[in-house]
TrEMBL record:
Residues 151-170 have a biased composition (Acidic residues). Residues 133-173 are annotated as: Disordered. This is 4381_t:CDS:1. It comes from the Eukaryota. The lineage of its organism: Eukaryota, Fungi, Fungi incertae sedis, Mucoromycota, Glomeromycotina.
Length: 559
């Protein structure tokens, strides 16, 4: 360990460094390093951290070193930006590119040495950060620049052709390719969570998160292909059966994901609710007769009303019979062309009538359509970004909406082919669900499970969102159904009712949690400690690629 620090040509004792530890100690110990050495150090630390197991005692020390190295590198980049014009003006006076390279490299070394002197503390204290290493690399390939690499001297230029860069692998300044992930974004290892068969889900999920973060630093994550990785950075494990990304399958086997999915549904007390044999037979009989006749006649109406009179008003059987009666009265006999239907038309004419009976529970909840601002996501609101879900489930107390407990998004048939937009909706309801769950847990509510759904055209996918363990949120697909848009589509809809009734039970459970079970127990006292921060909007915009491409393959199916 060096006792002195290099400040240009002047040597000062390390005790004179005003930087507080650990960054001050880190600078002191590496004061003699060149900029080339510093970049090699970044590469080595990143490689070591990727290979280490997070339970290793050296992992935390390596993580701190890497964070300090990135911080100081950003400061150095800020210093270079301040001196960029002066450097380029000086370089323009040289007669040859070789001389410019040599002189430019010397200038950057001098600046780096000066940075490791007294100015480093001032810049660090001011909180100024630099650009991303990816931007530095991009600028390093340009001319005139003090960072021009010898391996890139020869380029082929054409009137209509892009520049072709040749790299012989001998560049004296190796640049890591990173996007501007904020240096304060850290992944905190969750506490061990061992399942019944000995599988530690926390350990594997944390490795998956680190892999997702590494992907984000190499290139921005794409909404078409990396939905699960985007959500993993907000500590959410999304499981849709048989729709896993290759990155997920590198860490979890498909059978393991199916097992976690089953355990997660059991934990939130979800199960499909099949109809009674008598009711199912009645629904099939009525649906067949309505499809055959093509109209809603008096005989069908009388039969439905007679059966309704025999049921309890709040029973599931009465709910189904009332729904069939409304659909036969208000829906067309045969499907119409909905390709030009807007989102609002789809909601008001079809979805609200079919979905509302399954998500509302008496007078305690209210289904709110559409585009209503979410109150729990106000901290994530930024200019140019909406926080209005297409649907929210509001909890009502004394005629006032006092909480939110569910969300939904809708895309009409016209936009089902837009994978980018549909996946963005899925990410949105996941982020809203996490914000809602965090808000409810902080208020002391026991074991909340947030019901979520996404409608794309005729298809409705339902999800449960819960806090499974320390730092692990589970978003599980509970089922997908095809919603009827005409009387002739009622018969196949009978088979899907069990999934909707199971989803109705989730909506009823969250209502029960909010209505009276607010007393904390021993397990509940741990829940606030299990919470993790959501990726902020600026961080989200830095992680996610805003560009669209139909050529990108998506593992998530929306139709």
């Amino acid at each position: 360990m060096s006792k002195y620090s290099v400040q240009s040509t002047k040597v000062i004792p390390s005790a004179a460094w005003p930087c507080p530890p650990p960054i001050g100690v880190f600078i002191r110990d590496n004061a003699g390093a060149t900029w080339h050495d510093w970049l090699n150090l970044l590469d080595a630390l990143e490689a070591d951290l990727e290979e280490m197991d997070f339970g290793d005692e050296n992992w935390k020390k390596t993580q701190i070193k890497l964070k300090n190295a990135r911080t100081l590198y950003d400061v150095f980049q800020a210093e270079l930006e301040k001196n960029e014009k002066c450097i380029e003006k000086m370089l323009s006076a040289h007669g040859s590119m070789a001389n410019a390279q040599d002189k430019g490299f010397q200038v950057q070394q001098d600046l780096f040495g000066n940075l490791l002197g007294k100015r480093s503390a001032d810049v660090l204290d001011s909180g100024r950060g630099g650009r991303s290493l990816r931007q530095v690399r991009q600028r390093a390939m340009g001319s005139p620049s003090p960072f021009f690499s010898p391996g890139d001297e020869e380029t082929v230029e054409g009137d209509d052709e892009e520049e072709v860069e040749e790299d012989d692998g001998e560049s004296p300044i190796p640049m890591p390719l990173l996007v501007d992930i904020p240096s304060n974004y850290e992944l905190v290892p969750p506490a061990s969570c061992v399942l019944a068969d000995g599988f530690d889900i926390a350990k594997v999920f944390f490795k998956y998160q680190r892999h997702a973060l590494a992907l984000a630093r190499q290139h921005k994550l794409q909404l078409e292909t990396n939905v699960q990785e985007i959500l993993a950075l907000s500590h959410t494990l999304l499981i849709k059966p048989e729709q896993h990304t290759p990155e997920m399958l590198c860490h979890f086997e498909e059978e393991r994901l199916d097992h976690i999915h089953a355990i997660g549904l059991e934990t939130v007390d979800y199960q499909s609710r099949p109809l009674s044999q008598d009711l199912e037979a009645l629904m099939r009989n009525v649906s067949k007769r309505a499809r055959a006749s093509g109209k809603f006649d008096r005989a069908l109406q009388t039969e439905l009303l007679t059966n309704i009179m025999d049921k309890e008003p709040e029973s599931t059987d009465a709910l189904i019979l009332y729904l069939w009666l409304d659909i036969m009265r208000k829906f067309p006999a045969k499907p119409t062309n909905l390709e030009r239907e807007s989102e609002g038309d789809l909601v008001t004419s079809y979805l609200a009538l079919v979905i509302n009976p399954f998500v509302t529970s008496g007078k305690q909840t209210r289904a709110v359509w559409p585009n209503t601002a979410s109150t729990v996501a106000h901290k994530q609101k930024t200019v140019g970004r909406a926080r209005q879900p297409d649907f929210k489930l509001a909890y009502v107390h004394q005629r006032q909406e006092v909480a939110e407990c569910g969300y939904g998004e809708v895309k009409p048939d016209l936009k089902v082919a837009d994978t980018f937009a549909c996946n963005l909706d899925l990410v949105r309801i996941a982020r809203l669900g996490k914000a809602c769950l965090d808000d409810i847990v902080k208020k002391g509510v026991n074991g909340p499970v947030i019901p979520l759904f996404q409608v794309t055209g005729h298809k409705m996918c339902m999800y449960s969102f819960s806090l499974f363990a320390d730092g692990i949120y589970l978003m599980l697909e509970t089922g997908c159904v095809s919603l009827p848009m005409a009387v002739s589509e009622l018969l196949p809809f009978v088979d899907d009712l069990e999934h909707l009734l199971g989803f109705r039970e989730l909506c009823s459970n969250i209502t029960n949690c909010l209505s009276g079970k607010r007393v904390a127990n021993d397990d509940q006292n741990k829940l606030p400690k299990y919470l993790r921060k959501t990726l902020t909007t600026p961080q989200f915009e830095q992680v996610v690629d805003k560009t669209k491409s139909r050529k990108r393959k998506s593992t998530i199916r929306h139709n």
